Amino acid sequence: MHIVIPDDYQNVIRTLDCFATLRDHRVSLYHDAVADVAQLAERFADADALVLTRERTLVGEELLARLPRLKLISQTGKVAAHLDLAACTRHGVAVMEGRGSPIAPAELTWALILNARRQLLPAIQGLYAGQWQVNLGQRLYGQTLGIWGYGKIGQRLARYAQAFEMPVLVWGSETSRAAAEGDGHRAATSRQAFFAEADVLSLHLRLADATRHLVTAEDLARMKPSALLVNTSRAELITPGALLDGLNLGRPGYAALDVFEQEPLTDSGHPLLQHPRVLCTPHLGYVEREGYELYFGDAFANILAFFSDQPCTLANPDVQRKTD
Q1: Catalytic annotation, residues
Q2: How far, in Å, CA of 115 to CA of 298, rounded?
Q3: Where is the D-isomer specific 2-hydroxyacid dehydrogenase NAD-binding domain (predicted)?
Q4: Mind listing the pLDDT tens digit for each residue in 140-191?
Q5: In whole angstroms, how far apart are CA 290 and each of 114, 210, 216, 299?
Q6: Which are the contacts of 240, defined by CB distance < 8 A and separation ≥ 6?
Q7: I need a surface site. Which of 51, 156, 236, 274 has the fewest CB within 10 A?
Q8: Which residue has the higher pLDDT, 55 or 187?
């Protein structure tokens, strides 16, 4: 069996413990980011299975039509908009999903909040440049943490906030607001109040048609000039251009970002990377060793189960499986 794994940016998948489960199979790994359909079709031409790292590779009708041999896509985590599930079904390509974990994304979010509030990056850069104490940060104690989306990550953040003695303010669905209140937190009285009251506002929503560009320029304009917006979910949750415009207008005052509309972001001149009040990381939310062992361990186990005809749960159960 030939298994192809694209987008191994850090060249680390072979170092994972779970990789040993594929020792009896041919595995091809690619360490760059490719979007060209023709190039992807060439790389995947004789693959029996693909392992997709989250949403890094777009797989749609055009690409699938050029992969008659492909039988299975084993997705790390859950299927999202990068994968055309209906097209997979039409082309006889089964899709299997794995699990996710809130631990690494929540920890990364909190690291961004701490670093952005204490302004650690410019302080560290100053020290390495021979300067001592170049700025003045802020403590988290007493600041209101706004969480939009009270799921597994949001709930974990709320517990971190309690340890730092930060009051928590939640917005989201009625279910999310009720759950937050049940945990002793406060639900915002309105969307407008949520943006106006939060000192640190963190987005934790899934990207879907209903949430795409959900955060508008009007929302950002309600934030305090001292407020910090944190986005470790998806850049597309925010209306294009609205965040940069808002920062330049002074509301919010700061941003900490792990996600971008174009990834990987390799343009060092990008205005968000150049902005003095923005802290950026290269989509590291789930990029952590134990998380990778979970994601890829599931993906590899799914491949082995599928090709050994074990009972499998497919994301597209109506697919007609290909045979050699």
Answers
A1: 234, 263, 283
A2: 33
A3: 111-285
A4: 999 999 999 999 999 999 999 999 999 999 999 999 999 999 999 999 999 9
A5: 23, 32, 35, 14
A6: 213, 261
A7: 274
A8: 187
323, pLDDT greater than 90: no
The pairing of strands 145-148 and 278-280 is unpaired
49: enclosing H helix or E strand: strand 49-52
Cα-based torsion angle of the residue sequence 186, 114, 264, 241 in order, rounded to the nearest 10 degrees = 60
Residue 322 confidence (pLDDT): 80
Distance CA 79, CA 50 (A): 13
Residue 324 has pLDDT above 80, yes or no: no
Listing DSSP states for 70-118 in one string gives --EEEESS---TTB-HHHHHHTT-EEE-----SHHHHHHHHHHHHHHHH
Residues forming a β-bridge with 59: 83
* Nearest residue to 96 via CA among 75, 71, 69: 75
- H/E stretch holding 254 reads strand 254-257
**171 neighbors 226 (Cβ within 8 angstroms):** no
pLDDT digits (tens, 9 = 90+) for 280-305: 999 999 999 999 999 999 999 999 99
Q: Which residue has the tokens 């508008």?
A: 216
Nearest-CA neighbor of 189 among 233, 138, 146, 160? 146
Integer Cα distance of 188 and 48 in angstroms: 50
Describe the chain by its helix, strand, coil percentages, rounded to 5. Answer: 35, 15, 50
Q: What crossing angle do the helices spanning 289-307 and 103-118 adopt, rounded to 10°?
A: 160
Confidence of residue 276 (pLDDT cuts 50, 70, 90): very high
Per the CB < 8 A criterion, the answer to whether 161 and 230 are in contact is: no
The per-residue DSSP string of 19-41 comes to: GGGGTTSEEEE--S----HHHHH
Count the Cβ atoms, other than its own, within 10 Å of residue 22.
Answer: 20
